Amino acid sequence: MATIEQNLGLCGLDKSDIELYLFLAKTGRQNVGRIEQASSFSRATVYNSLQRLEKHDLVEKNREGRSVFYSITHPQHLSLLAEYKKQEMELLTHDMKKHIEHLTGTYNLTLGKPGVRFYEGEEGAKEVLQDTLQARGEIFAYVNMDIVEAYVKRLNERYMAERKRHGKVKKIILPDTSAAKNFVKKIDDKLTQVKLISKTVCPFETSLQIYNDKISYLTVYKKNLLTFVITHPGIANMQKALFSFMWQHLPSPSR
Fold first, then answer.
1. How do residues 8-40 score in pLDDT, each as one tens digit?
2. Mind listing the pLDDT tens digit for each residue in 111-164?
3. Distance between CA atoms of residues 218 and 116, nearest Å
4. Measured between alpha carbons, how far is 243 from 208 in angstroms, rounded to an integer?
5. Which of 98, 116, 134, 159 is deepest in the core (most CB within 10 A)?
6. Angle 206-183-201 (CA atoms, 0-180°, nearest 5)?
7. Where in this chain does the record put each HTH arsR-type domain (predicted)?
8. 3-class DSSP state for residue 43?
9. CB 219 within 8 A of CB 146
């Protein structure tokens, strides 16, 4: 079993915080002068530690005339500190997984392998859409507007507004549905170009975006929103060629 000093250190307290906290726990209420005498730290360090301990609700101060006394709060507050640290570590673990996914894709590219990243939920879709704003040229996309309307309507509206601010041109091929036709009617800028394809000839349900050396897929599986990003120049160039061929042979929609 770890000592209390070790556990307090794991909760983010430094050496002076731990020493002063345990001193007050043993001796009760004390003023700064007495605390300084009993410790090996300077007055400035003592004040800084007491402020940090107050911030964590581990110490409280009381004034009596011109004197200020410090004492520990109920030890139960230590469990709150541990819980906060636990949540902080869970957030760190979550963020680190994202960093690992990104670095894995980059690492694979250095080995000549396609870089692949995977995301779940709306936050993942948002991250991928934001990445398309780094496109060095036109963005090509196959989009299923029914899925967009059902799962990421507001996110897509915010993304479109931001894409316009960045001046990014996007060519989109849509299955010819009522949702797609409504989308075409609402287009009011030259940055968004759309062509429709028969939903019986090409009834795709996955949205795909092609830009730079990347291809992103957005799909729904068992009502879960999933996004994949593949980074590989050869694969991206092939998809760009296929898209361009299809784009050339599709008629422009009537407004």
1. 887 788 888 888 888 888 888 888 888 888 777
2. 666 677 888 888 888 888 999 999 999 999 999 888 888 888 899 899 999 999
3. 14
4. 11
5. 159
6. 45
7. 8-86
8. helix
9. no
